[in-house]
Every structure is written in structure tokens, then in C-alpha cells.
Specification:
The chain is an alpha/beta fold. The chain is 35% helix and 18% strand. Strand 1, helix 1 and strand 2 form a beta-alpha-beta unit.
């Protein structure tokens, strides 16, 4: 068995930044079910936040983030994020990041929703793409062992300590175990729990589900972010950069309607506020075919081509609208998971030797609502911190010796899919889970809808026992991968809906029509979901408050 000091699961920005942070004398392996440059981090278009402007400060960034989180964010973690952000931008620049520049040659920054200053650094509207390729170059330079097109099926946990991983080789077939001194999960979000999402097809929450199955709690799963500007039916994201550059949102009457919902900041209110406003306009009959309109025509052709070339191409390609000439129909769409595997500020989870970073982790720096531009910063700041901490753990605890016996649970789990009588398609069940989540736990929530959704998930859990795999091939058996992913999706769907049903208030992205007010007396706390045979078991822990006492939030 090949052993490593540190194993990282996930090839996006958080995973690669963690690998780069480990010292060169340690052996590091990175596992990804796709090639790292095809990870979902490439889809982060708008930019990465940092208080590097002359009039800006990390304290102002921290306040905006706490306010944006609807005061559910842990302020010790937020202060680290914002304080370390400027140096990490400088480090990316030293690596060779090609940020766009202003007239003075400094890194250009644009305003994003919920921010008091223009602090989003960007590379046109392809920031994630640029950073992924940059870090992949650094990964190759460092000599990290990359296992691309491997699907990690489970964690090896013995006596409460994570000892390594079990992974399926998609190219050659077969399960293998890999011992490690420490394991970092950096597997991204779970957007494919829903029927339509801005997320790539690979975003099925596998890392969260693995940790959940191994006994680590998931935190704040009820907080699912809807992005205000996605293309109808496709879920394709149109970056917040469009509004940051000055785009308007208008309804069927030509009204710039955000003046009624956020009179001070208009389109640059936080994402939860803008998404609810759009949905309300649509539900009250002021939409167009289930959409509102994004209008950037007043910016002019040159500025659109310079600052927003990718989203113009997306709108032109997928719905045939040239935003230089006409407004683009858009709708709120599932985008980001504020919740995830509970960690501390070093990335450590409840399982010794297991860490997590990026969207699959929950520190919580985003609380009930994430500000645009903070996700990329989180991957860089806390990916680095997780890599450093994993290296410390691995230096004290060498990779253990494992036997093939650790493969048996996954061998049995996979063999069950091939049993006679199992005929349910994983893709069919996945589609039904997505439809149930979209119908019952969207932007506006009620007890009735949530309870109906929960009943539906109980039925789908029962039917999941019938998932069968007809493809008998070992190489690139994507039907088998789909079956495993579907069980991950189902685990997370249950945690999301149970957590949302229990939280009887409205806060950030969690909006209850039957409990419309934020309730700090009873609900200024994080939800923890533990897996049991009867479904999620919920517990609660307090929010960490350092300098910003909760107050009413307005934009």
C-alpha cells in the first residue's frame, strides 16, 4: 500500500492551496475525481475579496462579513479571514496571478454586494479559472502526487482517528486503500442536491457525506445560498460582477425594483436580500416568464467587452441574448452551501487527523449568508491553514500500516448495487431528490412545505435500497459513481431539510414565511447535524462573538 504523510481529497482551490502550504520534505497526495483544472473552482467568475484599497481596512471587511452573515458568522474566524486576506493576495501575485489593473497599475477592485468598499480583486470575469491554473502550476512545481480521476469512497477511521482513505480508480477500476498521517477534505459544495444549480455535475457533496458517515457533525446545513443572477432553466451563473460594474435589475414594468427592497445599496445589497426581492417580484406578477431582467446596456460595448466578456458569451450562447443590445432574463438559482463539516480555524474536525477546507467545511465565516468574493478568499486563507496544520499532525504521527480488510465495507457496499432485483436507476432517484428539494426548500419556506419535503425524502430513502448498477465494466463505470453520489446527495438533503424545519426564525438565506423575523434570543446559534440510523440528530452550539454585537441588518 502506498502511504503518504498528507492526503488531500479535492482538486479545487482549497485542496491545491493546502497542498502548496505543506513543507517539501513531506509526501503529499491529492485525489480528484476530475482533472484539477476541471474542478468547480474555475466557475468562480467575479473575484476574490481583500482589504487592499487605500481607504479600506480588514476591520471594515470583517464588519461587512459579519453583517452579511446576519450575525451567525463566528467572528474569530471572520477576523482571521479578513486580516490574512491582503497578504494572501500578495502571495498569489508573487506566484504569478494576472489580476486586472486600474489606471495606476494597482490591482483593480470592483464593488460587490454587501461591501462598504470596492474590495473584490478580479481577472476580468474569469477569476476562478485564472487562479485554478495558477495553483495547478505551483502544484506541479512542488511535485505533489496527483491522482486524477479517482473517486474517494470513504475515510478509514480507527479508534476515532482518521488513518487514510479508500478510493476507486476510475481509469483502471478497483478499490485501493491509502494510509496517511492526516487527511484534508476539500471536495466543494453540494449544489446538485437540487434539480437546477449553478454548480458543476461533480458537486454532489461527497466529502461532506463521507465525514458525516464517519461521525463528524455537519453545521448550519439549512443555509443554502441562492445567487440572484442565473440563466433560466440552465442554472448557468452570470457573475455578480455584472452588478458590481453597475448593472440594473428591472421588472416587467421597466422598474428598477431594488429601490423598494434596499434603498441605499440597490442591486448591491447582500445576495439573500436581492434573491428574495427578485422572487417576490416574480411571484407578485411583475416578472417575465418566471424571470426578471439584468440590464447592463448603459455600461456601453467597450466596458462590457473589457470587464464582462465571459458572461456576455454565456448569455449569447445559451439563451441567444446579447447583453450589449438587450436585457438578459435571469432568476435566482441555488449556488453555494454556507453549511458543511464543522471545523475550527485550523481546519480540524471532530475526528482526529481529519481536516476540511473550502466550501465543504463550515468554520463559520459565512454564517447565514455569504458575501460575494469571500468564497475564493476562504479557499486560499483556510486551505493554507489546513495544509499547515495537517503537516504538523503528520510530522508527529506517521502514516499507519493498513491491511486490505479496510476495503471490505466499501466492497460490500458496491457489490450490493449489482445484486439481482435491484433495478432503480441512480439518475432517476437523483432527479427525484432534486425536484423534492427545489419544491419544498427554496427561497421561501414554511413548516407545511418542509414537512411535505421530509415525508418525500423518507420515501426516497426507502427506495434508495433498490438502486442497481447494470454496467459491469470496471473502467470508467460512471453508473457506479452515480449510485455512490446519489447516496451522498440523499444524506445531505436529509440534513438540510431537518435543520431548516427545526429553525423557527428567518435569518440570511433561511427565510420562513411562518417565522418572518430574526430571533436572536432563541436562535443565535449554530445547528449541528449528526448522522443516525433514524436520520439526522440535531444539537446546537453558540455563535462566537468578539467585537460586533448583533443588530438589525439593513441595506
Amino acid at each position: 500500500m502506498t502511504a503518504f504523510d498528507v492526503i488531500i481529497v479535492g482538486g479545487g482551490l482549497a485542496g491545491m492551496r493546502a497542498a502548496i502550504a505543506t513543507p517539501p520534505h513531506l509526501s503529499v497526495a491529492l485525489f480528484s475525481k476530475v482533472h484539477p483544472v476541471r474542478s468547480h473552482s474555475v466557475a468562480a467568475e467575479g473575484g476574490i475579496n481583500a482589504a487592499i484599497g487605500r481607504d479600506d481596512s480588514w476591520e471594515a471587511h470583517a464588519f461587512d462579513t459579519v453583517k452579511g452573515s446576519d450575525y451567525l458568522g463566528d467572528q474569530d474566524a471572520i477576523e482571521i479571514l479578513c486580516r490574512e486576506g491582503p497578504e494572501q493576495i500578495a502571495e498569489l501575485e508573487r506566484m504569478g496571478a494576472l489580476f486586472s489593473r486600474d489606471e495606476q497599475g494597482r490591482i483593480a477592485q470592483r464593488p460587490f454586494g454587501g461591501a462598504g468598499y470596492p474590495r473584490t480583486c478580479y481577472t476580468e470575469d474569469r477569476t476562478g479559472h485564472a487562479l485554478v491554473h495558477l495553483l495547478y502550476e505551483q502544484l506541479l512545481k512542488q511535485g505533489t502526487t496527483v491522482f486524477e480521476e479517482w473517486y474517494v469512497t470513504s475515510l478509514v477511521v480507527e479508534e476515532g482517528v482518521c488513518r487514510g482513505v479508500v478510493a476507486l480508480d476510475l481509469v483502471a477500476g478497483g478499490l485501493r486503500a491509502f494510509p496517511a498521517g492526516a487527511v484534508i477534505l476539500a471536495t466543494g459544495g453540494y449544489g446538485r442536491v437540487y434539480a437546477v444549480s449553478t454548480n458543476a455535475a461533480i458537486n454532489t457533496g461527497d466529502g461532506m457525506s463521507m465525514a458525516y458517515r464517519a461521525g463528524a457533525p455537519l453545521m448550519d446545513m439549512e443555509f443554502v445560498q441562492f445567487h440572484p443572477t442565473t440563466l433560466k432553466r440552465t442554472g448557468i451563473l452570470l457573475s455578480e460582477a455584472a452588478r458590481g460594474e453597475g448593472g440594473y435589475l428591472i421588472n416587467s414594468e421597466g422598474e428598477r425594483f431594488m429601490q423598494r427592497y434596499a434603498p441605499k445599496t440597490l442591486e448591491l445589497a447582500s445576495r439573500d436580500v436581492v434573491s428574495r426581492a427578485e422572487q417576490q417580484e416574480i411571484e407578485e406578477g411583475r416578472g417575465l416568464d418566471g424571470c426578471v431582467l439584468l440590464d447592463v446596456r448603459h455600461l456601453g460595448r467597450d466596458r462590457i467587452l473589457e470587464r464582462l466578456p465571459q458572461i456576455r458569451d454565456l448569455a449569447l450562447t445559451y439563451i441567444g441574448v446579447d447583453m450589449i443590445e438587450a436585457p438578459v432574463p435571469i432568476t435566482p438559482g441555488v449556488h453555494y452551501s454556507m453549511g458543511g463539516i464543522r471545523t475550527n480555524v485550523s481546519g480540524e474536525t471532530a475526528i482526529d487527523g481529519l481536516l476540511a477546507a473550502g466550501e465543504c467545511a463550515c468554520l463559520s465565516v459565512h454564517g447565514a449568508n455569504r458575501l460575494g468574493g469571500n468564497a475564493l478568499l476562504e479557499t486560499i486563507v483556510f486551505g493554507r491553514r489546513a495544509g499547515l496544520r495537517a503537516a504538523e499532525l503528520a510530522a508527529r504521527r506517521p502514516a499507519p500500516a493498513l491491511t486490505d480488510q479496510v476495503l471490505e465495507p466499501d466492497r460490500r457496499r458496491i457489490a450490493a448495487f449489482f445484486e439481482s432485483g435491484r433495478s432503480l436507476s441512480a439518475w432517476t432517484l437523483r432527479e427525484e431528490i432534486g425536484e423534492a428539494m427545489s419544491r419544498h426548500i427554496g427561497i421561501f419556506r414554511t413548516r407545511e412545505r418542509l414537512e411535505e419535503g421530509r415525508v418525500r425524502l423518507v420515501e426516497l430513502r426507502r427506495r434508495a435500497a433498490g438502486i442497481g448498477v447494470r454496467d459491469r465494466s470496471e473502467r470508467f463505470n460512471m453508473e457506479l459513481v452515480a449510485a455512490l453520489e446519489t447516496l451522498s446527495v440523499l444524506n445531505l438533503a436529509e440534513a438540510i431539510i431537518d435543520s431548516a424545519l427545526a429553525r423557527e426564525e428567518s435569518r440570511g438565506a433561511h427565510y420562513r414565511l411562518d417565522f418572518r423575523e430574526r430571533d436572536d434570543t432563541n436562535w443565535l446559534k449554530h445547528t449541528l447535524a449528526y448522522r443516525t440510523t433514524d436520520g439526522p440528530r440535531l444539537e446546537y452550539v453558540p455563535v462566537t462573538i468578539t467585537r460586533y454585537e448583533p443588530k438589525a441588518r439593513s441595506y
